[in-house]
Design brief:
Low-confidence stretches: 18-33, 323-330
Number of strands: 12
Number of helices: 5
Oligomer: single chain
CATH topology of one domain: Elongation Factor Tu (Ef-tu), domain 3
Helix content: 25-40%
Strand order of the largest sheet: 1-8-11-10-9-12
Mean pLDDT: 81
Distance between the termini: 143 Å
Structural class: alpha+beta
CATH superfamily of one domain: Efflux pump adaptor protein, beta barrel domain
Shape: elongated
Radius of gyration: 45 Å
Length: 348
Amino acid sequence: MAEIQAEHEKRIENPPQEGRNGVDHEKPKEESVEKDKAGKEPEKKPKKPFKWTPLKVVLLVVITVVLIVVGTIYLVNANNHATTDDAYTTGHLHYISSRVTGTVIGVLVDDNQFVKQGQVLVQLDPRDYQVKVDAARASYIKDKAAYDRMNLVKGDGAISQDVYDQSQASLTGDKAALEDALDQLSYCTICAPTDGFVGNKAVELGNRVEVGGALLDIVQEDWVLGNYKETQIGHMRPGQRAVINVDAVPDHAFYGWVDSFSPGSGTTFALLPSDNATGNFTKIVQRIPVKIVFDQESTRGYESRLVPGLSVEISVDLKSIPKGQGLPQNQQIHDDQQSHLQTDASQP
């Protein structure tokens, strides 16, 4: 009885821990490592050492050679080519406007149409100007007859020199007025100043146009303007060949050559040019516009797809200068200057 009572008191002093449901969660201690029947830990299997087989050696050699070849080609290409994606196509834009006021009675071209130099584009009503021509011609004929009669009697002293001079001046003024009226009449027929494509057509039949009013544009001759970094043009010369990739024509590579360099950097002709004469100057690589013209053979059949404003990527071959090509203007000027310098140096 004494032992039972002692055990009961011990349980009262140290009650067992119960969970939420009143169940004893006391777990038996488990060993963290399993042991085999003999009571020893299982031995781990050693990893197999890496072995160089002939196939692995060949693969390593091939990969190394390919990497070396690709790296060499890339470095050689990078050193011999100047590339940029800061480029776009541009061209001559001829803004066609009216030189006289009139009503449009004929529009003889359509959007995107190719026109030849001298082709009639727009016709204005010529009747008002024809009336002015007739009046100027009548006045000229009248004064011309009077002047001819004075010439017949001038030698006889029938008229004074002052009257003769006035008649001659009047005839000259009538002739000028007639020529001006004829010019005004001719301005009623608006023709294409050059070959090109019609764009931005804003004229329609019945429009009343004023002097200088925009009618349409003629787009002529495309070329590429590449904005190269100043560190890329050190070995670039006019006449070097270029590969031109136009985003709008991804299935065809165009070719051309460097024509000339801009006389100033891009910031020089900006609306707000930068001023480096400040205390917090930071050197920034400038861009130099480079004009690159298309090779006509590579653009054959794509003339209508090459329009101003297209994004372009250019790669200029710095080691290649085509033979048989005429020297561009800037190169010709450079050669003339060198020739003059050599001539001056040879003179005593």
